Amino acid sequence: MAPLIVDTDPGVDDAYALALAAHAPEVDLRAVTAVFGNVDLPTTTTNARRLLGMLGRGDVPLGVGADRPLIHPTTGRAADVHGDDGLGGVAERFGPLGPEPAGRALDVIARVLGTSTEPVVLAAIGPLTDVALLLATRPDLAERIGRLVVMGGSVGVGGNVSPAAEFNVWSDPEAARRVLVEERVPTTLVPLDLTHEVTVDRAWLDALAASGPVGEALAATRTVYARGEGLGEDRVPIHDAVALLEAIVPGTLATVPLEVEVDTSLGPGRGTVHADRRGRAPGGRTVDVALPDGTDVDAVRAALLERLGTHM
């Protein structure tokens, strides 16, 4: 089983993602780290504890990460999408509380990377602040990351927090640029271009709710989340779960190697990810960008329901 770390800002779709990771037979969930993002850090930390407790993974170390971006402060959060509690207004359905935090996120991640005898998969499904700090302060551990899977960005369909920017990247563009442009860790980027295609409908959510307590709690988040995402009542995206499925089963999503750039200006384009489709420049760093072309979105949707519906 591949060792897996999930850096997350729960978050409704983060809850789906953690449910996927908790008992996937292909991976060994070695740590979860909470970062600011959809809601503030104390809430994302509590939500991570709720999810680990409900999923029966109290054995997984929980690290507490960054509570703000690297450079420019932002007060933007996504309570309008995820609810004030981060879990669609139904956080009380998730629990009991799992483990107390085991320390700082950077220390928890470094411990896993430093002791693993196999390359570790790092799934980053919130702002990339923790990952950027790790790579900046512990460059010796970069080679221990076999693959970084990032949910973030939009390379052609427009943004969800501004006309062009996606929330995770927009929350800390400097961190995103460090990770996606300056580093050399093998990276798969799962943008809105794909996650907006792998949406789920009412029948899918009803089937999930009927599967058991975990599925029922996840499906109960739909009211606030569907309204906040603004894609229509019968079209709910679960962005982070799509990225986690790719982290668990590499090759689930079709990818194209592209050079990317992140707009770190303070203007209206801040947080935009630009993908260069003209071809790879000699020596240029590419990331594998997951796109709808070549991806069987119906199969992805079905796989998510099958895995989430067989929990407990």
From TrEMBL:
SUPFAM superfamilies cross-referenced by the UniProt entry: Nucleoside hydrolase
Gene3D superfamilies (UniProt xref): Ribonucleoside hydrolase-like
Annotated Inosine/uridine-preferring nucleoside hydrolase domain residues: 4-299
Pfam family, one: IU_nuc_hydro
Keywords, alphabetical: Glycosidase, Hydrolase
Gene Ontology molecular function, alphabetical: hydrolase activity
Protein name listed in UniProt: Nucleoside hydrolase
